[in-house]
Amino acid sequence: MRDVNASASESGVQRLFVSDKTKLRMSRRLSLFVKRALDVLLSLTALLVLAPLFLITSLILLVIQGKPIFIGHRRIGRGGGMFPCLKFRTMVNNNEELLEKYLAANPAERAEWAATRKLKNDPRVTPFGAFLRKSSIDEIPQLVNVVLGHMSMVGPRPIVPSETIYYGQNYADYIRVRPGLTGLWQVSGRSDADYVKRVQLDALYVANRSLVGDLMIMVKTIPAVLNARGSY
Questions:
Q1: What's the burial of 129, exposed, middle or buried (CB within 10 Å: 0-12/13-18/19+)?
Q2: Does any domain span residue 102?
Q3: Which residues, including other chains, have CB under 8 Å from residue 188's CB and lie 6 or more apart?
Q4: pLDDT at 135 over 80
């Protein structure tokens, strides 16, 4: 009789654990659904509000730089798939060849590029492109990526395949979520942060992500963009 009672008790405990796991899965699914719904709502609203700026910027680029107005740089998305990360074009054409020559002739800038994958004085960037980058206007087209599900409003910084070597074991965490239009890297100095710091911030976000955390990051993004903190 004691064995029967023990068996019944163990069965009840197992059902409790299964129930908790099911609740956890349901909670995660609900959180993902709400996050995606907010992404679509906020990105569509932002595109509507920013439509005049979007159009004016496109016309100016067409006049002073010519086509293409947009670039779709291949970045790594959730699950490791590739997507075209949209931006207004801020660089001259044939910019990769120009970069190679510039880095070969300038050791200090080559070290800067190796550490941050950014250059404060990038010879490829046009004068109007520099303004777009400083003001973050160049990233407005990424709202389309959010609508299409390539990106989220908040997430890790979108990276290219050559950057995966810097992530190591953290790469598995990176591809668990959609890359973000903004994130911890955006509100923590952006280009001023070295690459090790960026990877740490991405891993920290994935491990602790929440809807409340996303909202806090979006709020902190506003002054970061207005102050052009770490933007170039």
A1: buried
A2: no
A3: 197, 201
A4: yes
143 in a structural domain = yes
Domain assignment of residue 85, yes or no: yes
Which of 232, 130, 139 shows the shortest CA–CA distance to 191? 232
Domain that holds residue 168: 31-90+125-226
Into how many domains does the chain fold?
1
Q: What is the pTM of this model?
A: 0.82
Residues 156-185 have a mean pLDDT of 91
Instruction: Examine the pLDDT at 24 and tell me if it is beyond 70.
Output: no
99, two tokens: 């970069």
Q: Which long-range contacts (CB under 8 A, 24 or more apart) does 216-219 make?
A: 217/154, 217/182, 217/183, 217/184, 217/186, 217/187, 218/153, 218/154, 218/182
183 belongs to a structural domain: yes
Distance CA 226, CA 135 (A): 7
Overall average pLDDT of the 201-215 stretch: 92
117 pLDDT exceeds 80? no
State yes or no: cis peptide before 68, omega within 30 of 0: yes
Mean predicted lDDT score pLDDT of the chain: 85
